[in-house]
Amino acid sequence: MAERRLALLAVAGLVALFAGGCGGDEPSAAEKQVKEEFDRAAASRREAVDRMVADGKLPPVAKHVLNTNGTLNVNFIDGPMGDEDVVRLSSDGSSGKKLAWDLDQNGKIDESERTITERELYDATLGIY
Fold first, then answer.
1. Stretch 53-78: mean pLDDT, rounded?
2. How many Å apart are CA 105 and CA 113, to the nearest integer?
3. Contacts (Cβ under 8 Å, ≥6 apart) of 49
4. What is the pLDDT of residues 38-48, one digit of tens each?
5. In this structure, are residues 103 and 120 in contact, taking their beta carbons and an 8 Å threshold?
């Protein structure tokens, strides 16, 4: 749902850019509104992930699923498998032992949670793991 809203905001932003005309130095009211919506959505997403980390629902490395501007970065490990790279225990998720975490919050680390990929971690940040 959140991604769909962001996609709609992106389309609205593009429309606002084209509708605003060319050559103006100041952003139009529509452009400002779209930027504010993006900023609010990004802050909300950062807060949600921070809260899930603080509550122990996600490992600290889950914060890397977000870029500093709040946009999503499902491929935060620069590895050969795209978003299927295995997340590891280092602070950036790229080295060390494989991350094991109870992503589905069922009280135990299932076999599938002993090798977590970037995509699975991303899905967990959206609550769809």
1. 90
2. 11
3. 58, 62, 63, 65, 66, 125
4. 889 888 889 99
5. yes
